[in-house]
Write a structure and sequence with these properties.
The chain is mainly α. It has a single domain, classed as Orthogonal Bundle (ABC transporter involved in vitamin B12 uptake, BtuC). 72% of the residues lie in helices and 3% in strands. The protein has 13 helices and two strands. A two-stranded antiparallel ribbon has the order 1-2. α12 packs antiparallel against α13. The protein is globular.
Length: 362
């Protein structure tokens, strides 16, 4: 006799308006919960907590100071860029957990070009070379596990994770050599993206905005986007209708890796003008959640990314003002993400409780 008290059942498709109403309510509750926990831990007033959060994200925006706003948009752009890069692979159900390494390799290609070719090429040619080599480096780091998956059916999750560690050590070795043993490469002047109105983030944000629109069109309206969806649904169905599954896997991971390489370029040539093992800062793993929570829709991913970055920066300001450990903001962001994941679960599934009848002795 079945003694379980409940079982999980997949829901019929919920109306779109109802699903988004639940998501919106979850986001509001999550932000309120973060405020309550922050207030209790810091001992500050509820209003003061949100004021600190706002200052941590936007600074003195109402006084005409936009530096913090641009930093916020830059952080959104970098996380979103990684999430967009992972999305084609995830939609194909190829679990690419190597965004960190692929971005680092793209950044490595950028810094090598900046150091070695900075005084040898004209500025436009140097920027073009940085862009091409960064995409090639990221694509190479992405296609290696794709080939092994397509040919030998290896586990892509473990493979891409291990590639992250290899990339990290390559970066560490390069920085050690070029930094003269100091583990630091001084900012490089050549090959930096131009600042627009003294704003070094503007070009990065425009590039990621263009990639967002292009990715939406690619996934929704292109033939390759259709093939990615079919392969993600079923390899057998894809083969039945004439799709070369191995080709799609390799091609999609080349695109995914190349986009990660672009993110590395944005960090090195557009922001830091240097590189180290923490240049990506673990955002490759957060990007996995952004892609999934965004339901592989680039525009929804913009919203999710903006919320997560807002909380990360805002709670970090609250923690700093109360002299709390920097991990406090990561804990709060983790709580919010957990609530969003739970929200998606209950949108797609319901819990049914089993009714047990008492056994009657004969």
């Amino acid at each position: 006799m079945n003694k379980t008290f409940f079982h999980v059942v997949k829901r019929d498709d919920m109306p779109l308006w109802k699903a988004w109403l639940i998501r919106g309510a979850t986001i509001i509750i999550a932000i309120l919960l973060v405020g309550i926990i922050s207030t209790v831990v810091t001992g500050k007033g509820f209003g003061e907590t949100y004021e600190k959060m706002f200052l941590g994200v936007f600074g003195r925006l109402f006084e005409g100071k936009t530096t913090m706003l641009w930093k916020y948009l830059q952080d959104i752009a970098i996380l979103l860029s990684l999430a967009l890069a992972l999305t084609p692979a995830f939609k194909m159900k190829f679990w690419n957990c190597g965004a960190e390494g692929q971005a680092l390799m793209g950044g490595l290609a950028s810094i090598i070009c900046m150091i070695e070719l900075g005084d040898k090429l004209s500025y436009p040619l140097l920027i073009a070379t940085i862009a091409v080599t960064s995409m090639l480096a990221g694509a190479l780091w992405g296609v290696i596990p794709a080939i092994f998956k397509a040919v030998f059916n290896t586990n892509e999750t473990l493979f891409t994770l291990m590639m992250n560690y290899i990339a990290t050590q390559i970066i560490a070795y390069y920085v050690y050599i070029k930094g003269g043993g100091s583990n630091v490469i001084n900012p490089v002047a050549a090959g930096n993206f131009p600042a627009v109105g003294n704003n070094k983030y503007f070009v990065n944000i425009v590039i990621v905005a263009a990639i967002t629109v292009a990715m939406f069109i690619y996934l929704k309206y292109s033939k390759q986007g259709y093939e990615i969806s079919v392969v993600g649904e079923s390899h057998n169905t894809a083969r039945y209708i004439g799709i070369d599954v191995k080709k799609v896997i390799i091609r999609t991971m080349i695109i995914s890796g190349a986009l990660c390489g672009i993110t590395g370029m944005l960090l090195v040539a557009g922001t830091d003008h240097s590189i180290n093992i923490n240049s990506v800062g673990g955002q490759g793993f957060t990007a996995i959640l952004m892609s999934w929570l965004g339901q592989f829709n680039p525009f929804i991913m913009v919203i999710m990314t903006a919320i997560v970055v807002f909380l990360r920066l805002g709670v970090a300001k609250v923690a700093d003002s109360a002299q709390l450990n920097s991990s406090f903001s990561e804990i709060m962001v983790g709580i919010v993400i957990l609530m969003l994941v739970g929200c998606e679960f209950f949108i797609h599934y319901s819990i049914k409780f089993n009714k047990h009848k008492k056994e009657v002795a004969e």
